[in-house]
User: Fold this.
Amino acid sequence: MTNTTFKDNVVIVTGASYGIGEEIANRLAEQGAWLALAARDASRLEQVAAECRKRGGRAIVVQTDVTEQAQCQNLIAQTIKEYGRIDTLCVNAGIGMWAMFDKVEDPGMLDRIMRVNYLGAVYCTFFALPHLKQTRGRIVGVSSLTGKTGVPARTGYAASKHAMVGFFDSLRIEVAQSGVSVTMTYPDFVASGGRFRNLGIDGKPVKNAPPYAPGTMTSETCARLIVQGAAKRQREVFMSTRGKIGQWVKLIAPGLIDRIALKAIEQGE
Assistant:
């Protein structure tokens, strides 16, 4: 039986122009969701929106740079204008990093990462929250296993994802009585194409990123797990066995987790 939890559910998806965000939009469209798709690339968003409509959903495009408060406010306003309410906010927009910290040429790169991954999620939530309280809606944050543990070559990215987790863990407690749920999701390595948008030592996308290891999770699988977790209003969604086990091992053998993280990076997993 097809899941219809999100039928006629008004969902904002940031970072919807490619990868995990695009696939989340596709999965939701198949259930008949009413989507507001946000990213900086409007032409690419139009393609995603067209596909979502083919799959049975409604979709509008709102070109948005989540680092700008005014644009996040406009995203919420345009969604309300089109649909009259907001039921779910999925903060997925993100940017990665692939550089050892002592090799970074300009620390301003870390500012950009923090503004996209952390403040972008905060800004969208700030403007959407009053509307989500009215519908007893959902907030879905797409973090990373890096938001739970340190990973080499990801210092700025890890910091931004840790900040995101801390914010939403705190907000969950604050809004619990309003009926708004907060689901945090933790993908492992995902073959989303994002690796080739990771910022390198010069603050520009890495041109020679290592290939994905065989068996790396696909964007489609990752998105399916995120949507399933959101439908159930789960507190947390881990995408891999090693992610789940790692949280327990870290408590008793943190050095082992450090070595595993280093090996994973060296192997390009």
About this structure: The CA atoms of residues 147 and 196 lie 20 Å apart. Residues 10-240 form a domain with the Rossmann fold fold (CATH 3.40.50.720).
